[in-house]
Amino acid sequence: MAYSEKVIDHYQNPRNIGTLDKESKAVGTGLVGAPECGDVMRLQIEVDDATGLIKDAKFKTFGCGSAIASSSLATEWLKGKSIESAMEIDNMEIVEELALPPVKIHCSVLAEDAIKMAINDYRVKQGLEPIVDDKKHY
Amino acid sequence: MNFPIYLDNNSTTPMDPRVLEAMLPYFNEKFGNAASRNHSFGWSAEEAVDYSREQVARLIGSTSKEIIFTSGATEANNLAIKGVYEMYGSQGNHMITVTTEHKATLDACKKVEKMGGEVTYLSPSEDGLINLTDLEAAITDKTILITVMYGNNEIGVVQDIKGISAIAKKNGILFHTDATQAVGKIPVDVNEDGIDLLSFTAHKMYGPKGVGALYVRRKNPRVKVTSQMDGGGHERGMRSGTLNVPGIVGFGKACEICQNEMADEAIRLSTMRDRLEKELLTIEEAYVNGNAEHRLPHVANISFKFVEGEGLMMGTKDIAVSSGSACTSASLEPSYVLKSLGLDDELAHSSLRFGLGRFTTDEEIDFAINHVKEAVHKLREMSPLWEMFKDGIDLKSIEWAEH
Questions:
Q1: Domain CATH code at residue A75
Q2: Please, which residues 338-397 of chain B have a Cβ atom closer than 8 Å to chain A?
Q3: Which of B6, B38, B124, B189 could make an SS bond with B61 (beta carbons 3.0 to 4.6 A apart)?
Q4: How many domains does chain A have?
Q5: What is the value of pTM for the model shown?
Q6: ipTM (interface predicted TM)
Q7: Closest partner residue to A37 among B315, B332, B381, by Cβ?
Q8: What pLDDT does residue A137 have?
Q9: E strands within chain A?
Q10: Which region among A100-114, B131-145, B249-263 has the lowest average model confidence (pLDDT)?
Q11: What are the chain B neighbours of A42 within 8 Å (beta carbons)?
């Protein structure tokens, strides 16, 4: 199966690899997937206290090219977004942008889950309720 | 060097130019049907098939009458397993095999179970070898066949074939081996090894795809299998269908070349393989899968912990290898062979299989070593698991959100 050019680009030039201080109150961390499944994504956001906008996003991913590309793309999209609009990122947008084939849709689902988990981690640190996501994938 | 470098010779091999040359006349010039007895077109095709049958038989130490040409090893495995079940059903309905066999064997055994047979699937020890005591313990008075592959396609482990065949013989049970990866790579002799039925194929030994054979012993004991393809009664009635003459000619030539060059080739390949392996094992947290001593000369299967196999293959796009990871399949299940060795799913996902071949050069191995080292390094830099490992976090202590 051939990868799309965009997947290859993100794989070869991943955006925003790295680690934010997960103890910081301004940082939310999402860790999803499992080593046994061959996919683990860690996505972090740092929120600007004054504006409430995401000022930085970092990721590290263990997984196939599509998983790496999905998380790399997610960090790109997250930067500058408000928490509310970040919550609205849908996995199918990632599928479309990266032209992921059906067998790789789970990579985009993981990225969406990681975003939401990172946001909720941040919200809990801020003393807010986590947002319950009842969206059904597929 | 031409890119990508082909290091997936367990999957298939390129044809040797000498094989292609031998085959060419049999497509148009000498196109006859080997079963046509009434004219010279048929006679010359038959003569070519007879000659090739000798070449093929010689490589495994059999007589030419014991070679049944098939479309490949999958068909040969099916013919052996289902054919024995049908032929010897009155003597028993039990067979023994191993969990690390090729799907062609496992699925044929599943079919036998559907037809009312019983199959015992032995688990190998963690180095891939089966325990002969387990084998003996699995035998019942209903056992009619033991089928164990000679050399494994994923990890290259070579089973104790003589030990297995001795047990089969002692108990009056037929012994079949899928020798697809072994024939032409290491010495295989049906008499010395005590083999009753043996499957192999041309395209793993620099011959064409679409042709293989089943060796069926004719003496001590005389073995018969029920045909799985009915028709004109070709191949002593065990496999009907017009013979693939150019394919068979190529198969014969490929066998002859292997016979002449195998000894030197095995040394050359194992020297290169060992160098590749030694260099790649200098990478931290890299492990060889399977027994390193009882192994085919051209195979190395290595897990690089904390990087995922398919991601790694994408990073090593200048070499063509295969991975035990199954990220491409909907099931997300990693290699069942590696799992049978007791490997964690995680390590199975992190494996690469290197299959060297006749046309692999030292220069290509040098390139592959650096290419893999760089890719592992790059992917670990972006692996959260590697970071956790480096921070001393036990990955087993984490509650993963499985999906």
A1: 3.90.1010.10
A2: 344-346, 349, 381-387, 395
A3: B189
A4: 1
A5: 0.92
A6: 0.92
A7: B332
A8: 58
A9: 27-34, 39-47, 54-62
A10: A100-114
A11: 384
